[in-house]
Amino acid sequence: MQLRMTNQREMILRELRKSKQHLTADELYEKVKKIMPRISLATVYRNLEILSEAGIIGKLEVSGRQKRFDYEVEEHDHIYCVVCHRVDNLEIDRESIREVGWNSDKGYAVHGYRLEVAGICPECQRKRSKKEKKQ
Amino acid sequence: MQLRMTNQREMILRELRKSKQHLTADELYEKVKKIMPRISLATVYRNLEILSEAGIIGKLEVSGRQKRFDYEVEEHDHIYCVVCHRVDNLEIDRESIREVGWNSDKGYAVHGYRLEVAGICPECQRKRSKKEKKQ
DNA sequence: TTTACAAATGATAATCGTTATCACAAATGG
DNA sequence: CCATTTGTGATAACGATTATCATTTGTAAA
Ligand SMILES: [Mn+2]
Ligand SMILES: [Mn+2]
Ligand SMILES: [Zn+2]
Ligand SMILES: [Zn+2]
To answer: What does the note under cofactor report (chains A, B) (predicted)?
Structure first.
C-alpha cells in the first residue's frame, strides 16, 4: 500500500518539479531519457499514473488533448493557449467563485469543479502579430 | 462556403436535436443507422465536425474523454457524471461568475472559459446505494 | 440533357495517445 | 539464501479520431 521510490519514479518526479510546467508524458519522457537513456515510455506513463493516484502530483485533462501532469497538487485552475496548448496556472480566488454557486445541479452529488480559461499565450500573440505584418 | 444539407447531414442533425442529449459520435451513429443503414461512421464524424464548425451544433470536450456534441449552441456550462460520463447542462448565472474575474491571466488574451462541474448523477447514486446494501 | 466540376460518401487504413501484456530484473522480508 | 511481491523495458493492443481514395451525387454551365 505504500509506494516505493524507485530511481525511475524519483527522476520523473524530480524532472516534473524542476520544470515547473504542466508537461505531457512524452515531454517528460524526453527529459528523463537524457539522464536514464534506457527508461521506457511505458514506465513514464505508469509512474505518472501512480504518482497522481498517490496525490504526489496532479493530473490535468484539459480540453480534449493529451494529459498533462502538474508539479503542484493543491486545487487550482488553469489557463491554456488555444494555439500551442501550453498550460499555466490561473490565480483566481476559489472562495469567491464558490459563492456564486449553481442553482440547478440536476440531482447530481457534486464532487468539485474545474474552471478552464482559454486564450492565446503571450508568445503565440507575438508570433501572430509578426505573421500579420508579413501579409 | 455555404453548407449543403445532404440527407445524411440532415438526419444526424435531426437525431441529435431529437435526443436532447449530449451524444458521442458513435451513439449518434447507432441512432442514424436505424434510419439509414448504409451510413458510415466516418460520415457521422465528418458531419458533426462540419456542423459544429458552422455553429449549428456545439462540440464538448469534457474531461479527457470522447467528444460529445450538443444540440444547443448558446454558451452554457455542463455537469458530468464521474461514473457513467453522462453530461447535462448546468444552469448557472454566467454574468455573476464573470464578475469574479481572474487577477492574473499571465498575459494571455482571454477568449473564454469553460466551467466543468463533476459529480455523480441521480441514476448512478441509486445504483451505488443498491450495491452498498448488498454488501 | 450532356458534360464538367466540386462536394460528399462509404469503406477502410493510418494515426495518436494511452493501456495491457509479459518475460525478466530488482527489492523485500523472512 | 529463497520465495514472493513489485517494477521495468519492449512491444502489442486498444479506442477514438482522422486521412485516404475510389465511387457517387449534386450543381451548373455549355
Ligand atoms: Mn497547475
Ligand atoms: Mn449542453
Ligand atoms: Zn501559445
Ligand atoms: Zn452517472
So the answer is: Binds 1 zinc ion per subunit.
